[in-house]
Each structure stands twice: as C-alpha cells, then as structure tokens.
Amino acid sequence: MLAVASMTASVSAQTVSESKTFDNFYVGINGGVATKTTGHKWMSDLNPNAGVRVGRYFTPVFGLAVEGNAYFSNKPWASTGTFVRAVNTQLLATINFSNWFGGYQGEPRMFEVSAVYGLGWAHTFRATGKHAMNSRYADRYFMNKAYEPANRMTSKVGIDFQFNLGKEKEWQVYVEPSINYAFLGQAAADDGNYIFSARYGFKSYTNNDQPAYNIHNSFVQLNAGIIYKFKNSNGTHNFTIVVPRDQAEIDALNAQINELRNRKPEVITKEVVKEVAAPVKQINVSDLVFVTFAQGKFDLTKEAKAALNGVKEGSHVQIVGTASPEGGAEINQRLSENRANVVADYLKTRGVIVDEAVGKGVQGNTSNRLAVVYVR
C-alpha cells in the first residue's frame, strides 16, 4: 500500500492542482448481500447488510476510506438471537485503475474501475441459550448459558465498478463484488469445527491460534452504493489539471504587461477598467495587480496568491477578469467571471474590501488570461 501510494503520488503530483487539507473528501452509503464462500446454498443463504463509507482521494489514483457495515440476518451461520448479528469496520485503500493506466483527463470518466483492499475488525454480538450453539451440541455444552461476543480481524478485497454522475461529476454510484476474510480465530476442542462454527461463524482451520487467511474463513459479498464528493477549494468536486504554459505564452504575457506599464494612466483606465466607477485618485501602474491563469482554469496558483498578498488589509479594490480568444463566447464570459470572483473571494479572506468584481470575457486578440486588480 505504501509503495502504491508513493508511486501514484509521484505520477499525479505534476498534473493536478494543489490539494488542500480538506479537499477531495466524500461520504456515502451502501448495502447488499453476503454469504459464506464455501459451504452455503446460493440464493437461499444470503445475509443482507448496510453500511457507511467516508473517504478521501489523495491523488486521482490513490485514496483511503473508512467503512462500517452491519449484518442483519443469521443466514448462513448459526443464529445469535440478535437483530444485528455482526458489524465490520475496515480501513480501505482505493486504487483507480482507469486513471492509473488511462491518465486523468481533468474530470472523472463516466465509467471507471477501482480496486479496494484493507484490514479491519468484526464483532459478532452475544448469543444466549439455544442460539449459542447448533442443536447438535446445545445440550452437551451451552444450553441456557450466555456466550461471549466474538471479535475477529478481517480483510477485504474488492472491485468497484463506478458511474460518475451529476453536472460536475459530484455523485458516484458503484457496484462492488468483494471477498472478506475473517482470521485470527481460536481453535476449539472436541470436534472444534462445529463448536468454532457456532461461535465465530466459520470453521477454524487454525493451528494454535495462528492466522487462517483462506477461503474457508471468508464470505463473498455483493454491494451497491452511492457517494457524494464535497466541493473543493478549486471550485469543483474533483481534481483539476494544471496546464503548464509554454515560453511563447509567457513572452506574450510579459509583452502585454510591459505595454500597459508604458502607456499613460488614463489609457489604462479606459481600456482595462472602463466600466469601473470613477476612482478617487489617478491610476498608476503601481496600483494594478495582474493575476494570471492557466488556459481554461480559474484556480489561483502560488504565484498569484503571492501577488495578491501584497494588497494591504482594508484597501478598496475593483477587479476585472478576462479570458483568451480560445473557446466560445459564453464559456469565456463565464470563465472571466469565475476568475474575477476567485480573486475577490481570496482578497476578502485577507480583509480587503472588494467594491466590484466583473468578468469582461475576451479583451483583444492575444492571450489575456488575467484578473486585473485596481487598488484604490
């Protein structure tokens, strides 16, 4: 698991945007049926279950989740006489094969395949009287005696077939077949397979309390679930790709900034912030902060935040967002508005007073993926 985490982190680190501490979390519910891997009757020995899963994606490939499930029926095991027969809580590693082998495209695919693997702990509740033992051994050993609850270490291996839904792919529905191992049991005396089966739900197949990690101590499970991915600091519910700028784009941007610096203040006022309310003082280049964005994106880079950090607390600002000529007019207008808004939101958190934040779409014929901040 550590090797996979290191590999997937290095694979994704240079392609996706920075992930904050509380980004990429999700919560969901699931339910389905389970039965013993061996010694069962298909379709008649099914144990229904329901559970909750909470997790986080660290990269588009690797994540961790905590899952807890309750099992409601005693089939195909001996009855415990309780409504909830057992609970199983596990820490799961998730590996998205679609993103690992196919690459992450900027948003989740409609259909993806992931693997889950993890370890946990299961608790079988107390059984009393005739439920403590199968009928063959009840009178001989445990009639009218309370049985102590059983605890066993568990392990889960499964495949998730995932469907990402919603306008921003914020919902995910999945179907998960899995096999769940229960091991670290206690061997019993006197034909212990039967006694052990009543207490733990499985035949022991152990030797002096050593782990028994095999299909005889396991059950298969088929669950379906739905999860909701919380909104991230980048404004979406998923990872976004950082598009590196080429040198030609950087040179064009520098030329545009130099041109603005060499022009008279009144020209800058007219062409860059022409619809902004009349300033209370003459505009100088030193009053302008230029924030640049990657193509098609509106998340703030570290460099952009460093530039905005220079705006003093309590200052009044007006913000104009723009977009480059690529793409349709509607998309560029919305993108320019998002750029202005994300700059405004960041400055507000620093105590800056935002008088106006507007998007102007495409301004000119060259690359101008900017948000211009006028500090009054």
Textual characterization of the structure:
The structure is a single chain. An eight-stranded antiparallel barrel has the order 1-2-3-4-5-6-7-8. Strands 9-12-10-11 form a four-stranded mixed sheet. The protein folds into two domains: 2-229, Porin; 247-375, 60s Ribosomal Protein L30, Chain: A (2-Layer Sandwich), CATH 3.30.1330.60. It is of the alpha+beta class and 376 residues long. It has helices at residues 2-12, 97-102, 135-142, 192-200, 247-262, 265-272, 302-308, 329-349; strands at 25-36, 47-57, 62-71, 86-96, 111-124, 150-165, 171-183, 218-229, 288-292, 316-323, 353-362, 370-375. The longest helix has 21 residues, at 329-349. The chain is 23% helix and 34% strand. The model is unreliable at 10-14, 133-147 and 186-208 (pLDDT under 50). The chain is built from eight helices and twelve strands. Residues 280-376 form the OmpA-like domain. This is OmpA-like domain-containing protein. Keywords: Coiled coil, Membrane.
Summarize this structure as a short list of keywords or feature phrases.
OmpA-like domain-containing protein; alpha+beta; eight-stranded antiparallel β-barrel; four-stranded mixed β-sheet; 376 residues; coiled coil; 60s Ribosomal Protein L30, Chain: A; 2 domains; single chain; membrane; OmpA-like_sf; Porin; OmpA-like; elongated; 23% helix
